[in-house]
Amino acid sequence: MSFCNDYFKGVTHEGTPKGRTEKIGGIECYIATPSVEYPKDKVIIFLTDVFGLGLKNSLLLADDFSRNGFRTIVPDMFNGDPYPVNALEPGAPPFDREKWWPHHGQAQTRPLIDSVIAALKLEGVTGFAATGYCYGARYVFDLAFDGIIQASAISHPGRLVVPDDLDKYAAVCKAPLLINSCEDDRAFPLEAQAQADLIFGGGKFAPGLLVIFPVHIREETQTCRCGGACCRIE
């Protein structure tokens, strides 16, 4: 299997996560809860990159979303076996990606996410947004395909099939979509970005599309706005 090497690169951010870790639906989750009154029937599902709960960057972002008034749930999508964070360190010993990857495909990962969402529904949650980063972006699309989420955000999206997934999203999804990408993105290159413009642009996608690049916003509709990396319905 070929990989985008950027899946396995990064830096560790400064800061201390403020949330807590507990099981939801039998799945270990990081939970970032607002310190002020917030809508108890709405949550953001934060779907991480391959480093999962082990890399605090994701937890710090979840804390930031909670400070903006939304309870944010970060499920362990790797069942305790994320890509090792120490692989980011200079001189780290090699890690066998080819051996690790088959244990973390859609057949293994999606049921973990579904268990968390089912448990949250039993708690009374009725509104879901999802934000996905690299590896996690695939599952944002899948949740939108199934009509589970009401708002979608993806950043440096990996493992999307272009244009097929974009065409399907435009055809069947009602959740507004935020795409965070950049001019140099091997997971979602300029050709894929052009396809997104062609499929969603010019008001073709009624729920709303927002595509953000480092220095400019290419398209925006009134029904979709950016709140950090989370797209939400006005």
Q: List the domain count as a whole number.
A: 1
End-to-end distance: 41 Å
Q: What is the radius of gyration?
A: 17 Å
Total beta strands: 11
Q: Supply the CATH superfamily name.
A: Alpha/Beta hydrolase fold, catalytic domain
Number of helices: 6
What is the secondary structure topology, with strand pairs?
Blueprint (H helix, E strand, L loop, with lengths): L19 E5 L2 E6 L9 E6 L8 H12 L3 E5 L21 H4 L5 H17 L4 E7 L3 H9 L5 E5 L8 H9 L4 E4 L9 H11 L8 E4 L4 E3 L4 E4 L2 E4 L1
Parallel strand pairs: 3-4, 3-5, 5-6, 6-7, 7-8
Antiparallel strand pairs: 1-2, 2-4, 8-9, 10-11
Describe this structure in words.
The protein is globular and about 40 Å long. Mean pLDDT is 86; it is low at 214-218 and 220-234. It has six helices and eleven strands. The protein has helices spanning 56-67, 97-100, 106-122, 137-145, 164-172, 190-200; strands at residues 20-24, 27-32, 42-47, 71-75, 127-133, 151-155, 177-180, 209-212, 217-219, 224-227, 230-233. It is an alpha/beta fold and 234 residues long. It has one domain (5-233): Alpha/Beta hydrolase fold, catalytic domain (Rossmann fold). The longest helix has 17 residues, at 106-122. Strand 7, helix 6 and strand 8 form a beta-alpha-beta unit. Residues 27-192 form the Dienelactone hydrolase domain. Keywords: Hydrolase. GO terms for molecular function: hydrolase activity. Pfam families: DLH.
